[in-house]
């Protein structure tokens, strides 16, 4: 179970990094660039930590990293090409999914053996909170704008 969790978490953080790289390729010189860079910098720290955890745990990364490399960058760049609102909607959708994923892992590890997984639980909770911050940042920066239809409509 732990190997699978770590492999999926690493792949998710890798994919998130590639999404932000794609967004920066398009919006990096815009007024939105510094905001995207700030979120990307946090994602880089997440990826580095999971690189360390994989090495310490002797867990191989997913064989699908080449796919995540291309797909993540393409998703980030294509939504950014549609405008800031679309890039932020992409951020909201991805970060919400990652947060829910971390929550399910936290629940599973708490049920299994919280003392054994204390350090990992701390990392997962911290990263989940960062992801929710990115989610909220996206909402604050027009992810639900009328010019963007990536997210389901929210009652206003």
From TrEMBL:
Source organism, top-level taxon: Eukaryota
Pathway: Cofactor biosynthesis; ubiquinone biosynthesis
InterPro entries assigned: Ferritin-like, Ferritin-like_SF, Ubq_synth_Coq7
GO molecular function: 3-demethoxyubiquinol 3-hydroxylase activity; metal ion binding
Keywords: Iron, Membrane, Metal-binding, Monooxygenase, Oxidoreductase, Ubiquinone biosynthesis
GO BP term, example: determination of adult lifespan
Gene Ontology cellular-component terms listed: mitochondrial inner membrane; nucleus
Keyword Membrane in annotation: yes
Annotated SUPFAM superfamilies: Ferritin-like
PANTHER family reported in the protein's UniProt record: 5-DEMETHOXYUBIQUINONE HYDROXYLASE, MITOCHONDRIAL, COENZYME Q10 BIOSYNTHESIS PROTEIN 7
Name recorded for this polypeptide: Coenzyme Q7, hydroxylase
Organism per entry: Takifugu rubripes
